[in-house]
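Protocol step 4 of 6: structure prediction from sequence.
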Amino acid sequence: METRPVILGIPDHLDPHVLAAAAELAGALGAPLLCVHVDPTRYPLEELPDGTVRSAPLDPESGDEAIERFPAQLLLQLEAQLDGSGLQWQAHATAGGPGQQLAHLALQHDAALIVLGVRERSMANSIRELLNGSVAVHLTRRQRHPVLLIPPRPPRRAEQIQSS
């Protein structure tokens, strides 16, 4: 019987704290970690037999069809933090609405759960959520897999920094 993976939604800026928590959870479950980056500026056209996704831009004048690639900088971060951990992990890139794509992959892989990092409170993040909706809310309301939200690491207070 194949172990059900833990799916980690990877935003454009990944908090190392969130990756560490997801990796620790996957390790405790003896599950592989599927790290998924979704490009919301494109939409999927076709999933190829090897699991890669052919996509097109939302704006037809902005580019051509392409194979989705995991962002190189994020892949380097994953490798630096996960290689040598003994954890089985894989990076996967796709396109479309992040909530829909993560739910689709969770169903496709019969995931144990989906892990997301919670963005820090800011005006920009509030506006982004207002315009685009919340991925976490979409996932918790529209699919059957458990969703674990990892809050941002609280900022260190001055006295903690001085005693370190």
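Step 5 (inspection) to follow. The CA atoms of residues 69 and 93 lie 6 Å apart.
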